[in-house]
Amino acid sequence: MPRRINALATWLLRLGPDEVAAVLVHRRDVADRHIRTLKDLATQLTDSDSVHAAEDTLDQGAIDLLGVIVAQNNTGTADTVCAELRCSAGDFERAFGELKQRALAWPEGPRLVAVNSVRANGAAEGRLTLRPKAPGTRRASETSPIVAAMSTVDGVARLLAHCEQDTFDARYTGGVATVEIRRVARALRVADGVLRLWLELAAEAQLLGVERSRLLPTTQADAWLGSQPGPRLSALVAAWRRMDWRPEPDLARAALRDYTGAAGLALRRGVLERFSAEEAFTNTAELVEDLTWERPAVHDLRATAAVIGEMESLGLVAGGALTPLGVAVRQGGDVDSAAAALMPAATEKAAFQTDMTAVVNGLPSPELSATLNLVADLEDNDAARVWRLSAGSVRRALDSGLSADEVLARLAAVSEAALPQVIEYQVHDVARRHGQLTVTDVASCVRASDPLLLQEIVKSKRLGSLKLRFLAPTVLASDRPMAETLAVLRRCGYAPTGLDAGEKSVAETVERLRAPARGERREDRWWRTEMNDVELTQLAVRLVEQERPSAGRGTPRASAARILRDQNVFLRDEEVVLLSSALVDGSRVEIKYASGPRRTETHVIVPAKHLEGVLSADCEDGTSRDFAIGHVRKVALPE
């Protein structure tokens, strides 16, 4: 490793400030204001984590070239590499330029050398992959994404309703199993991949949580369902921007798992950045191929195509171009306003039918949903929502404290036309029977104005669990609390009402099961502030200039001689001066070098750099080599 670091430092020494700045721009993770020398920079550039991160930014052609350099054990030349890859000199120079800009490979004489720790994963064998044909574009036209966006918002609402009314089990080890996803997808009549997207969006937006291995809506879901379509879509878009799972359409994968890394984030951001509002792609398949070649470490054909489908379903992309909502997301604009402008207003009215149903086309408003959920039961939650009124649902509305006239008034306020008479009859009929029985919590009492009705109740075997007994001709005592007595009577077909101690009706509310949200992800904040382009350029200039020998009154020679004298005790003063002059002037000298016990070698060299006791030099045979200053035994002018 030290020799490779010295070789990289020697190559960096030959670069100009603009070339060093280009390396820093492509390797921002190693840029540090406290780097003092190019040797320090070379040490940072050979860090394995940094090298792997830089590899992930390479295109497919550069990866192919890097793989051949590593395979030839850093002894290959440009000619041998081109011959193995069967590529032209121009294609080689382009790909090698990408490697040099990231300091992943560099020329060392005629040889091509790669930095330590490179993996070159995914390199093609025997060829240099050329960039595919540029994706075709045309001028963007206005294509409405309303249908797709409404379908997604409505789908998440349908999922929340299913989780509240039916079971959707989570695994005790975390996440949702594939078999459960398929079961619920069949119930909701959607594809497995679509349901998984709804699941991930709902969980990321804090709308779904896990309670005792069951998925349930959260309290945030109540606020979300009570908002207008625009804020609903905005919340889902914000959740999409935070999702870090990577779509795998060709694999059966569980959902709602915590994945390490940020592969999904990089994938989605990379796709979003390629779209614009001015130009539309005529064929997104060509875009997918181009992205896969450009960054194979991030993109692949199936996952990238799936992400484009996600963007279309959320209304970020339509017709191959960014929508105003997509522009706001990409540029960090006002997403809430863009979502509100995109989504139509919620439906305020329902169509009441003679079969006791209420049909709502589109997304119902919070007021409409609240009214229908109070008086009716949600029966169908597909393209159009269908609520059904029944004796039990009307009784539920009366239990909340409303009278029959108030129930009908609320229904009429949200009806597109006059209410069918059958609905009015149903409400009045339930209201006529509602309250014939009253229950008092003694632990509790059942009272009625008709003694014969109480005689019927006492004789019922189905009510035996209440242990009813007469306190008076019109009063029965129950052995169970009021809430349980009410429930048992209602299961047997009666319609009792509850009274408090002040003889006032008790307004009942249905408790809704809710689960806690798992918590929102927060962006990681690195401890070190990233340097901007100006600071990177200034750092590059400083590193290059301080390493460059300067002219004037022999100062560089004196400094070099003083340092060399401290690092070598074998050389005479005139030999130290000769070596320091060659280092400053770049002239040739002959040295004797101790390469082992009682063994020396003679080399004619041109010193290139002296750094931390190591002399980097170009030898007469065309190779570059590092010499430890303490092992030099003699310096002389070559013959």
Can you describe what's shown?
It holds the Pfam family Helicase_C_3. One of its GO terms (molecular function) is helicase activity. Keywords: ATP-binding, Helicase, Hydrolase, Nucleotide-binding. The chain folds into 5 domains: 114 residues, Arc Repressor Mutant, subunit A, CATH 1.10.10; 204 residues, no CATH class; 83 residues, no CATH class; 49 residues; 85 residues, Roll (SH3 type barrels), CATH 2.30.30. Helix content is 45%, strand content 15%. The strands form 7 sheets. The protein has a 5-stranded mixed β-sheet with strand order 15-16-14-13-17, with helices on one face. A 5-stranded antiparallel β-sheet has the order 21-20-19-18-22.
Summarize the topology:
Layout: H1 2-13, H2 17-26, H3 38-45, H4 48-55, H5 60-71, H6 78-85, H7 89-101, E1 105-108, E2 111-114, E3 137-139, H8 146-165, H9 178-188, H10 192-204, E4 208-211, E5 214-217, H11 219-225, H12 229-242, H13 263-274, E6 279-281, H14 284-294, H15 301-313, E7 317-318, E8 321-322, H16 324-331, H17 335-342, E9 351-352, E10 357-361, H18 366-375, E11 377-381, E12 384-388, H19 391-399, H20 404-413, H21 421-433, E13 437-440, E14 445-447, H22 451-459, E15 469-472, E16 475-477, H23 482-491, E17 496-498, H24 533-547, H25 555-567, H26 573-585, E18 589-596, E19 599-611, E20 614-619, E21 624-628, E22 632-636
Parallel strand pairs: 13-17
Antiparallel strand pairs: 1-2, 3-6, 4-5, 7-8, 9-10, 10-12, 11-12, 13-14, 14-16, 15-16, 18-19, 18-22, 19-20, 20-21
Protein name: Helicase conserved C-terminal domain-containing protein
Pfam families: Helicase_C_3
Domain Helicase XPB/Ssl2 N-terminal: 353-470
